[in-house]
Design goal:
With 89 residues, the protein is largely without helices or strands. It has one helix at 60-67, and strands at residues 18-20, 25-26, 74-76, 81-82. A two-stranded parallel ribbon has the order 1-3. The protein has a two-stranded parallel ribbon with strand order 2-4.
């Protein structure tokens, strides 16, 4: 998770990653939806941990571990082509 380049207090190495395999072709405009770190917790009023990212919220360290549930990396295997304009020769 990395929220602000100027404020490193929200930086963490505990994030889900996008892993792209060898010899992949990704067409222009492809977007990867990475939502695994917050997991859409159904106990919240919103699926986004709104209070966790308020810069004035001083005790974020106690909230983030409860808010985030890692789901695992998104893996695009080897020799994969994706996207509407992808054409394989």
């Amino acid at each position: 998770m990395y929220l602000d380049a100027e404020d490193n207090r929200y930086k963490s190495d505990e994030i889900d990653k996008l892993v792209i395999g060898k010899f992949c072709s990704i067409a222009t405009g492809v977007k990867f939806m990475m939502g695994g770190t917050q997991g859409h917790n159904y106990n919240w009023i919103a699926s986004y941990p709104l209070d966790s990212f308020d810069k004035d919220f001083d005790n974020y360290e106690t909230v983030l571990p409860k808010a985030y549930r890692l789901k695992g990396d998104t893996v695009l295997g080897n020799d994969v082509g994706i996207g509407a304009d992808y054409a394989r020769d």
